[in-house]
Amino acid sequence: xxxxxxxxTATTIFRRPKATTGFWSWITTVDHKRIGxxxxxxxxxxxxxxxxxxxxxxxxxxxxxxxxxxxxEYNALFTTHAVTMIFLFVMPVSAAFVNYLLPLxxxxxxxxxxRMNALSYWIFLFGGIFIYSAILFSDVTAxxxxxxxxxxxxxxxxxxxxxxxxxxxxxxxxxxxxxxxPGRAIDFAVxxxxxLGVASLIASVNFIxxxxxxxxxxxxxxxxxxxxxxxxxxxxxxxxxxxIIAIALFMVMFDRQFGTLFFDATAGGDPILWQxxxxxxxxxxxxxxxxxxMGIVSEILPVFSKKPLFxxxxxxxxxxxxxxxxxxxxxxxxxxxxxxxxxxxxFGLATMTIAIPTGIKIFNWIGTMWGGKIRFTTPxxxxxxxxxxxxxxxxxxxxxxxxxxxxxxxxTYWIVAHFHYVLFGGAVFGIxxxxxxxxxxxxxxxxxxxxxxxxxxxxxIGFNLTFAPMHWLGLQGMVRRTWQYPEGLNLGPxxxxxxxxxxxxxxxxxxxxxxxxxxxxxxxxxxxxxWDARTIEWTIPNPTPxxxxxxxxxxxxxxxxxxxxxxxxxxxxxxxRPEADELIARLDEEGRNPTEPIHLPSPxxxxxxxxxxxxxxxxxxxxxTSTVGKLLIAFGAIVTIAALLGWGMEPLEEEHGxxxxxxxxxx
Amino acid sequence: MTDVAxxxxxxxxxxHESTGIEIRKLGMWVFLSSEFLFFGALITNYLLFASRPGLxxxxxxxxxxxxxxxxxxxxxxxxxxxMVLAHHAIERGDQAGTxxxxxATAMLGSLFIGGQVFEFTDFVLEYGMKLTTxxxxxxxxxxxxxxxxxxxxxxxxxxxxxxxxxxxxxLSPKHHLNVELVGLYWHFVDIIWIVIFTVVYLISKAPx
Lengths: 667, 208
Hints:
heterodimer, A: 667 residues, mainly alpha, Cytochrome C Oxidase, Chain A, two-stranded antiparallel sheet, 19 helices, 62% helix, disordered C terminus, B: mainly alpha, Four Helix Bundle (Hemerythrin (Met), subunit A), 7 helices
């Protein structure tokens, strides 16, 4: 230890966990890389669940008047599909990338608050399980009050999905309120999303402080990779939008549980207030989903074009601009909700302006590829796919800014097509690009290129087959969120195409999983620099050593690693320095052999225990009318508070928590 | 070898700060910036309903006991003073003084919560304004309730600092920052109360 002052003898309830491998090492880990991996795998499990839900939806819609599932089940499925894909897949998988890569990209040992990082993950995991645990608490008799409402619940309708929330991910009031959605299903969504919000809020504080405070020497803000910049913007979006959805969800929770009247129009409450609060969070949330993928693509395109990112500052400021504007456009989700004409005009205009920074980014990405020596590797294919699909989704998005046009599109499949082009064609393609690109950092191996390309093309074709027809279905007037459509409207053929496309996507995901599983063990060894990369996360060995950097790096420019490998000739063309290969060999060697002992934060039990209290409180609130519920609230609160107290007493690093040189070499 | 010669010496986790602000302090500031929106949304929500005509009576603004709330506001403001004194004492290394002022702050905070409990009871029993009376009443109770919950969390943190100090015979230099962090949080809760007292209690009017 560098501090000479005697450490106060901290009294803790548990002995400090010591395991470095096996089950307990994962439960108690505070290593950002392991937490990132856990985020990634958990999110992928939810991706599979959400995907299966999508397939069930698509089977039901394959032909007119299908009876594959009931209306109630359909409602439950489209709701959980959205909640899962947004809160349990895209957000956490972005968190996985950020967790794993952020410290490596800015040259840090770990994130600013390693234990809080673990806390975020466990809260996210428990929150996800909490939402899905609704299925265990089905109370099928409850919705009796709303029989006969078209497309809504009928007790006899309910089967295996009885307890699952079915009010749409947006939980519009009063539909998802106590009168029209009695029973517990909605409560699980409301409280579950609240719990997930806590996880994201903690993570956002952590990442913002990490980016501001943990950068390596010379890593000025405008030398940070675009991925880091986009992460920063996203975390600010979360920081300022999560408290708003927290309040909104608390209001619904109080309405449903404790009889407040916020959204009860008969008592003077205001259902439109919910829409404002929800979309004031919900629209920034859209950028929370897409900006990390934009960051990933901005890392990959330059590497495989062998050119620096075209207009780096413009891309950075455009990203920040999207973040700012993202808070001023929420009401374009509400043009059909009866807001004033002035508001419609203002929000329509504001929405159009979003197209400017987005357009800047797209042109910069094209400019990056323009005249470059493009290598069509799998990550590059996904990145190009991202740009192309995102342009389509972006263009259909601008049509929503035109109010009269939006009135026609509201609640049709045109909207469904639009947001799947930005969230699947955009975010998910970006995520897969990133998975292929950074796979060597996890494993020291490269994913199989042949299978990767098959994966890309199958997914690309499947994606377009699924979602392109939805544009036409939407223009034909097919309505969202209805479980059946009648014959004779000629909606059948394109719906069938869409359903087939969904199964093609499913096939592509299977190909990906096979590739991942095989490449983990049998992939080609990647070496230090498999892609001829530009940023400093590639200056350390693969797989990443436990301590990240054997020596803290010093950064001298944007794309520092590139400039160490390449110089330019008189005509400005990149020329590889003769000593580049030697440099890579030396970095690999040095990265494996730290010269000084390295202090790493010690594992801890407290994050998982503190996190476990929250779902207990959640169950307690849902069952608060019973004694068990009241006890659960008290017990959950005590667990969390006690864990936080223990946490406060526990030092971040044990005296002997340092990684000895021998262990480092063995690694 | 020029590359390697220029690398910085290996440092321990968390010692290095690009901005020069200690990471935990920066973390607290970032968190508090989020909390402002939390209360911003609650206060806006209250203002939306506070003067909306036609709601079930009584409106919160009809039954405020301004002299009483002024006194409890004063108590909370004074707790900010004792918090500063606690911070000042730990900076000087005065462990006994730190404990005294931490305890005083926690006590004043508890007194404020006690006042709020009294106020709520009074509203419910004397005036019949319950959580479920009207959206305005709901908004009032949820807003001030969440503020009270924040004060309670602060009191818990103050008591645990006090307990740590007693148990270890004083807070080590590493824990000085904890006092400052709790102080930051405490002042934030105080500032929010000033806004609530002004906007919610003094300015907002029930419809005539």
